């Protein structure tokens, strides 16, 4: 049975979000939903998440799960907003889910940002073991562990489709950075080989697409290509690429690229499963922003 797949592109962070539904029961999952964050004005809005809710409403779906591939460092998760909105509309509780290694990343960033332990407890309703199965109506989903980009990174296989998050990108983009805490280029290489061992017609749905800036190569964002297309044309992984070459290139590249623009805001929200910090001021959430300063200016 083929699932119904609704890809939704969020252009500010170049993120793909997905609504994936069972054609028989109308049960669905939402994968990697995005909260809109205006970094110039420090304002969070919900247009992108509301567009996903509009699909659910118009198609008369009921949401079985809200699925995160990992703790994202480049956008804020809308999982909690969607869960709360559905609950307010009288729909059953839709659990927020991730892989079990999400706790590793939570612990790292809880220490970095002084996040109270109680704000992390139960932030995710279900943590999947590697290759654990779950039901989406008459469909079977498989929670895959796909580390390398981050220590907690995973994906979801539904039918002949794999939602790969930020492990592999479309062929002209290549692969994900590995310089976040717990990331590792050799580990990512092994993850990529696992993905490329799927049958050639398997569709790999990506977490981002960054269309070329070169006008001659311009194209619309792509949500997926097949395993065969990746093996033949991915600029980092074409047949004949070696692990040694990949690791050397990936490490050199990651050493010079800048961190995501909203990484501090994203990590503080996303380790909480999309919830805002408990601290607030004048009706606004308080997020920490780390700044490198001379040691002589530090007072504590």
From TrEMBL:
<dbReference type="InterPro" id="IPR036866">
    <property type="entry name" value="RibonucZ/Hydroxyglut_hydro"/>
</dbReference>
<dbReference type="GO" id="GO:0070813">
    <property type="term" value="P:hydrogen sulfide metabolic process"/>
</dbReference>
<keyword id="KW-0479">Metal-binding</keyword>
<dbReference type="InterPro" id="IPR001279">
    <property type="entry name" value="Metallo-B-lactamas"/>
</dbReference>
<dbReference type="InterPro" id="IPR051682">
    <property type="entry name" value="Mito_Persulfide_Diox"/>
</dbReference>
<dbReference type="InterPro" id="IPR044528">
    <property type="entry name" value="POD-like_MBL-fold"/>
</dbReference>
<dbReference type="GO" id="GO:0006749">
    <property type="term" value="P:glutathione metabolic process"/>
</dbReference>
<feature type="domain" description="Metallo-beta-lactamase">
    <location>
        <begin position="14"/>
        <end position="208"/>
    </location>
</feature>
<dbReference type="GO" id="GO:0050313">
    <property type="term" value="F:sulfur dioxygenase activity"/>
</dbReference>
<dbReference type="Pfam" id="PF00753">
    <property type="entry name" value="Lactamase_B"/>
</dbReference>
<dbReference type="GO" id="GO:0046872">
    <property type="term" value="F:metal ion binding"/>
</dbReference>
<protein>
    <recommendedName>
        <fullName>Metallo-beta-lactamase domain-containing protein</fullName>
    </recommendedName>
</protein>
């Amino acid at each position: 049975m083929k699932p119904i797949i609704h890809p939704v592109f969020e252009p500010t962070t170049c993120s793909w979000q997905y609504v994936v539904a069972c054609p028989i029961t109308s049960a669905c999952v939402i994968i990697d939903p995005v909260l809109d964050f205006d970094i110039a004005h420090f304002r969070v809005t919900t247009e992108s998440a509301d567009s996903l809710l509009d699909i659910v409403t118009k198609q008369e779906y009921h949401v079985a799960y809200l699925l995160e591939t990992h703790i994202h460092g480049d956008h804020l998760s809308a999982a909690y907003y969607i869960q709360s909105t559905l609950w307010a509309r009288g729909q059953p509780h839709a659990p927020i889910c991730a892989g079990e290694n999400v706790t590793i990343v939570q612990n790292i960033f809880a220490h970095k940002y002084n996040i109270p332990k109680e704000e992390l407890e139960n932030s995710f309703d279900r943590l999947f073991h590697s290759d654990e199965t779950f039901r989406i109506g008459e469909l079977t989903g498989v929670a895959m562990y796909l580390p390398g980009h981050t220590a907690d990174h995973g994906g979801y296989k539904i039918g002949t489709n794999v939602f790969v998050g930020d492990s592999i990108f479309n062929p002209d983009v290549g692969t994900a950075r590995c310089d976040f805490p717990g990331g590792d280029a050799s580990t990512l290489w092994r993850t990529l080989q696992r993905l490329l061992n799927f049958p050639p017609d398997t569709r790999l749905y990506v977490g981002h697409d960054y269309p070329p800036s070169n006008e001659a190569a311009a194209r619309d964002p792509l949500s997926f290509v097949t395993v065969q297309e990746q093996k033949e044309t991915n600029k980092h992984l074409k047949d004949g690429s070696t692990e040694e070459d990949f690791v050397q290139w990936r490490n050199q590249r990651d050493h010079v690229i800048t961190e995501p623009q909203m990484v501090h805001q994203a990590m503080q929200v996303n380790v909480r499963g999309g919830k805002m910090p408990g601290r607030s001021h004048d009706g606004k959430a308080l997020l920490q922003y780390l700044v490198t300063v001379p040691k002589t200016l530090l007072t504590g």
